[in-house]
């Protein structure tokens, strides 16, 4: 198949290399000529001169890997050109215009997939299987955490050049770490109310929130607490699920899932081989290719992605107005 990757930053370059490694033809375009030249040195990847020329080549699919503020416009152009579309998270920084994009993709029978790579992480998928099997009974509460020091995210790149610190580009920890809100929706379904405190609390550059505490009430009655930050010096990503017969603990850095029963002696910890960090991204691309070839539905389509965007919007409104917000 023929793919056009729009954006040659870290994630665009990764997807381009993975697609080329799977034997597909890949063209990449980026406004940054140095980044474009760098990724085009990889075997199987060519540079496109501009976005319109890349679309004129009639690629089978376009991957949008630019700052979030550009996603909606570029995805719309790709769908109008007849391509299927994969958009990196978040689908857009706000919900305005997203329903229209979803409808246009549906009308043209184009796949609209959104990149939320944790859906392809074996250890987190194991947690989902445990929940489906009611391994700890009825879920009562959840606490999820993600934190990492932003200047250390991308080696060799000044974090101040990252969209993460620019609100106008769709940055901020709530959108950047939308993974946590996405997988809570995957586990629990629809949310009904959000309370959030979020602010720029550190000395990092930028005008976006770098720490957020989010409390979400779901239709099922489950209460979830989500901590997100750009500021802690040691990477953390973990999850605690409290059920009426036990607790599930997931820790991404150690690739472990622990099921705790009423007695300590009944605790069971398993180490799950999540593979190298690229493995889930590679599986994500394989699945997207299957969606194009077989009509299989993507795990996160436009409708699913819109749910998380609206949750972020509600959280930001709650933080701004200092009150609970109904969805």
Structure overview:
The chain has helices at residues 10-21, 33-39, 51-56, 68-80, 98-107, 122-132, 173-176, 178-188, 279-294, 302-321; strands at residues 2-6, 25-29, 45-47, 61-64, 84-88, 112-115, 139-147, 191-199, 211-218, 223-229, 236-243, 247-251, 256-260, 268-271, 325-326. It is an alpha/beta fold. It has two domains: 2-115, NAD(P)-binding Rossmann-like Domain (Rossmann fold, 3-Layer(aba) Sandwich), CATH 3.40.50.720; 119-276 and 307-326, Dihydrodipicolinate Reductase, domain 2, CATH 3.30.360.10. It has a nine-stranded mixed beta sheet. A six-stranded parallel beta sheet has the order 3-2-1-4-5-6, sandwiched between helices. Strand 2 (25-29), helix 2 and strand 3 (45-47) form a beta-alpha-beta unit. The radius of gyration is 20 Å and the shape is globular. The N and C termini lie far apart (40 Å). The mean pLDDT is 96.
List the helices and strands and how they pair.
Blueprint: E1 2-6, H1 10-21, E2 25-29, H2 33-39, E3 45-47, H3 51-56, E4 61-64, H4 68-80, E5 84-88, H5 98-107, E6 112-115, H6 122-132, E7 139-147, H7 173-176, H8 178-188, E8 191-199, E9 211-218, E10 223-229, E11 236-243, E12 247-251, E13 256-260, E14 268-271, H9 279-294, H10 302-321, E15 325-326
Parallel strand pairs: 1-2, 1-4, 2-3, 4-5, 5-6, 7-10
Antiparallel strand pairs: 7-11, 8-9, 8-15, 9-10, 11-12, 12-13, 13-14
Helix pairs in contact: 1-9, 4-5, 8-10
Identify the CATH homologous superfamily of the largest domain: Dihydrodipicolinate Reductase, domain 2
Biggest beta sheet attributes: 9 strands, mixed
Q: Which radius of gyration do the C-alpha atoms yield?
A: 20 Å
Total beta strand runs: 15
Beta-sheet strand percentage? 25-35%
Q: Would you tell me the overall average pLDDT?
A: 96
Q: What is the CATH third-level topology name of the largest domain?
A: Dihydrodipicolinate Reductase, domain 2
Secondary structure class reads alpha/beta
Helical run tally: 10
Taken together, the total number of domains comes to 2
Fraction of residues in helix: 25-40%
CATH class bucket of the largest domain: Alpha Beta
Quaternary status = single chain
Strand order of the largest sheet: 14-13-12-11-7-10-9-8-15
């Amino acid at each position: 198949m023929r793919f056009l990757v729009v954006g040659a930053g870290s994630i665009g370059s990764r997807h381009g290399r993975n697609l080329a490694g799977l034997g597909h033809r890949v063209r990449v375009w980026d406004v940054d000529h140095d980044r474009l030249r760098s990724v085009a040195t990889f075997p199987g990847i060519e540079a496109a001169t501009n976005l319109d020329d890349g679309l004129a080549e009639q690629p089978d699919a376009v991957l949008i890997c630019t700052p979030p503020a550009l996603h909606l416009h570029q995805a719309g152009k790709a769908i109008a050109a007849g391509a299927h579309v994969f958009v990196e998270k978040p689908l857009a920084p706000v919900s305005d215009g997203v329903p229209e994009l979803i409808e246009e993709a549906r009308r043209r029978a184009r796949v609209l997939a959104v990149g939320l790579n944790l859906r392809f992480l074996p250890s987190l998928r194991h947690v989902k299987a445990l929940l489906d099997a009611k391994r700890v009974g009825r879920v009562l509460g959840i606490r999820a955490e993600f934190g990492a020091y932003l200047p250390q995210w991308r080696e060799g790149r000044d974090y101040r050049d990252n969209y993460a610190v620019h609100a106008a580009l769709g940055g901020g920890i709530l959108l950047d770490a939308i993974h946590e809100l996405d997988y809570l929706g995957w586990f629990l379904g629809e949310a009904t109310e959000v309370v959030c405190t979020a602010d720029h609390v550190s000395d990092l550059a930028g005008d976006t929130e770098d720490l957020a505490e989010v409390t979400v009430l779901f239709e099922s009655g489950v209460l979830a607490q989500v901590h997100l930050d750009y500021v802690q010096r040691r990477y953390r990503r973990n999850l605690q699920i409290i059920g009426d017969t036990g607790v599930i603990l997931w820790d991404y850095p150690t690739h472990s899932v622990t099921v705790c029963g009423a007695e300590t002696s009944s605790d069971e910890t398993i180490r799950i081989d999540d593979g190298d960090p690229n493995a889930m991204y590679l599986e994500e691309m394989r699945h997207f290719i299957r969606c194009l070839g077989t009509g299989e539905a993507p795990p996160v389509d436009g409708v699913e992605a819109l749910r998380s965007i609206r949750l972020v919007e509600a959280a930001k409104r709650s933080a701004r107005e200092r009150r609970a917000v109904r969805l």
